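Crash report, auto-generated. Payload:
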Amino acid sequence: MPQLFQRLRNSVFEYVDFPLLVITMLLMTIGLLTVFSATYDKSTHAFRQMASMFVGLAVMWGVARIHPQRLMRFAAPLYIAGLALLVLVVLTGVRVNGARRWLSLGVVRIQPSEIFKIVMPMMLAWYFQKYEDAIKMRHYVAALLMLAVPFLLIARQPDLGTAILIGAAGFYVVFFAGIPWKFLTGMLIAGAVAFPFVWPLLHEFQRKRILMLFDPMVDPLGAGYHIIQSSIAIGSGGFFGKGWLRGTQTYLEFIPEPHTDFIFSVFSEEQGFLGVCVLILLYLLLIVRCLVIASEAPTFYTRLLGGALTMSFFTYPFVNIGMVSGILPVVGIPLPFMSYGGTALVILFCSLGILMGIRTHPVLLRR
Amino acid sequence: MRHFIAQRLLSQRLTSTQNFGLERFQFRVKCAAAFVFFGFALLLARLVYLQIIRNEYYSTRAESNRISLIPILPKRGEILDRNGEVLARNYFSFTLEITPALVEDLAGTIDRLEKLIEIHPKDKRRFLGLVNENRWFESLPVRNRLTDEEIARFSVNRYRFPGVEIKARLLRHYPFGSAASHILGYINRINNADIEMIKKGEKSANYRGTSRIGKTGLERAYEFQLHGETGYEEVEVDANGHPVRRLSSIPPVPGNDLTLTIDIHLQKIAERAFGKHRGALVAIEPSTGEVLALVSMPAFDLNLFDDGIRQEDWDLLNTSPDRPMINRALSATYPPGSTFKPFMALAGLEMGKRTPEQSFHDTGVFNFAGHTFRDQKKDGHGHVDMYKSIVQSCDTYYYILANELGIENIARFMGHIGFGQRTGVDIGGESEGVLPSPEWKKHRFKRPELQKWFGGDTISIGIGQGYNAFTPMQLAQAVALLANDGTLYRPHLVKHVTDSKTGGKKPVKPELVRTTGWKQVNIDTIKQAMVGVNREGTGAHAFMNAAYTSGGKTGTAQTFSLRGGDYKASNVKEELRDHAVFIAFAPADKPRIALAVFVENAGFGAQSAAPVARKVLDHFFGIPSGRKPPEDRAVPRRE
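Recovered output after restart:
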């Protein structure tokens, strides 16, 4: 009997990385409690989020079982299909809140930009893997072009948040693939030079958000309102916080979108600096564990993909927390495992699944 | 276990170039890790700043976000007449209000509102007028006095109208409409000048939430008494400003009630007595200074103001050539005409220049410095002593007297009575008037040839003409002083203030201004002469068959236009007519009422002003109105 149990456990958890699972579940617990607080008395978001989590866990479990190299074969087809969908969004997309992001497929609406969060690094990692032994400058240029097309399509939707995440994910692949430092510095300088030319292309509200960063009091009741109220929430939390379900800024609706983009404000108001330290430590542990997985990955492809997905776990919280605490412009980026949102959560668990798969499928497939 | 195998497999399979690639990759991973640490450190630094260094600041901000003090307006004090008749009261009214700053499409919102609730074009114009005054963040009334049905209809559709609300407001109502309008005054929206006054009175905190304030009359003068103390409700509010929970509250204290010295019925009789004429009347109780009636005609309906006056009404009130908004009793100045004579006579007695018996022969002319001053009666009054000079209103007597007294003496004596000075009555808007003297003339005129005082100037003043210009209030006060045997009490309109907290009445005590020290014999001489006026002189016709004895004096004031008055050409003729003046006191032995009446452009005092005084005195002594003096007897032609 114990043997049967052992066997069952082995087969069920065969491809699961326990340290990663434990860290993730700790983050999820904090996230669910915070969503519950943010929407307390108003809705059942926390329970729906929990349902999404189970879907995510299932997806993670399933993806982890697939050999990374088998998954790799889908990189190019998914990338091309994704691009096609993005073009379709431009042509026939559904407009929600002024942004054309959704594609209506009869009953369901899908947001094609979401899948690029995984497909983008997969595609580039696959591309570099092909030229593993002799990567030339032109390959980097080609990779950056492959990155630029979906980035621009998504940025013009406009969905700057997702575009930045995808751009960052693709960039990490290029970085890990060994793009020369000279080239990197050149790009930085080029970016700085290009900034004045890009500025007029931005939407009015995007420009305002960036300006707001320097002085939120410019428009205290308009665009600066969110940053000011969010800063008040975080600052008033103090060292120990006001306690769970006791955040006045949250409860009295001063925080915009308290259960999605601004969930960090809710968390830090209620849990204080102490809670924030715990949260950031958990993210750090997650990233460190994933970096270990990536650096010990068996192939060039898995190393690049693992590294890029790992660094996404950094981009998300860094941009999100930076935004709500007023050091980065307001862009719609959720806080991983914390913000409410089914699709984003499932995609996160899918990334975890891929990383676990990289960890637990050490033996190479024969070609 | 698997991992170690993998690692080994990996290292075996690696070629030298791949080995180099792995090293490079691992270096890049380290760089990335450093980047991650750096990023998180940056975030933590920011959070230390927000949550630890600036925690106190943000905690305060969060608290002030959360807690809102909502002022609870006190009920404004009521105003009652001396017999307890309510002259100004409050009532609740539901008003439809819009805060323009919260509405995106103002015109569209009003259009949609009109489908639910009738909005008069006048109301709309008034509202847009307020909007144009840049009151974007205030809740401005669109419609007042909503019916229950209208409230219900709006409430159902409320969600469609952000920024539109129904508010319960306490409005002011004046049951007597235009009666005593200049005494009571009106209330209206607070303007910048009012804010200054509030700041000066250090009442800013008490006026949080108050939108209207007394503008004139008692509503202004007793504003701080009537207003009451604003209460506060401390509530927790959400981001939309909606109260979520009440934390504590301090109830408001209603304003104090004013009980006036005015008798509203006497006031109404007096106002009606003017008919269509413009003019003013002030009646005072001599022994206390209590103002019994204070009339300025035409009056205006105070209820036009109770919920924000409409522009058309306001324009009408302000452009009418009759100038109804001016309180003539206090701010208009008229020459006293012959009503000045009793005071001149008293001056003559007090300064030893005349005895009552001293007489002279009046030929109807008085020559002075090559100029001839004529009496109104062409051939003169013949043998004239002091009594006759007052009863028949002999001019020549006073030409001579004025000349003998000299302007300095006249100015000093009349100044002592209170002419040419504000009486200090307890509402604002009083004019000083003009008590002429060489000193005054020097300041009044710029050109040197006009600055000089001429002997002739003095002589006109003797009969109350010339530069003399007094308010009806000053004249009434002078009569009261005489009637009260030389003791002057400050005229006042408020009898007592009822404290709303204790219910205690704080009476306004008669304030002694001065005692003149006049000899009683002299006072009696003048009083007797004035009684003679109403018995056998110029006032006899008006006071025929009066059930009481009274003293009086008629007068005719040379015309002058109100300051800034712009009469139309067609009215010039009427404007050129003289003002009728009359002063009186009664009963003669122990006067309980002293009054002064001016009827503008109505000719002789005996003809137009004395009947007004008669009606007021009749009512005062409880005689039913309607008994008119007989018309058949010839009115003395001149006074």
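Post-recovery validation: Chain B touches chain A through 47 residues (CB under 8 Å).
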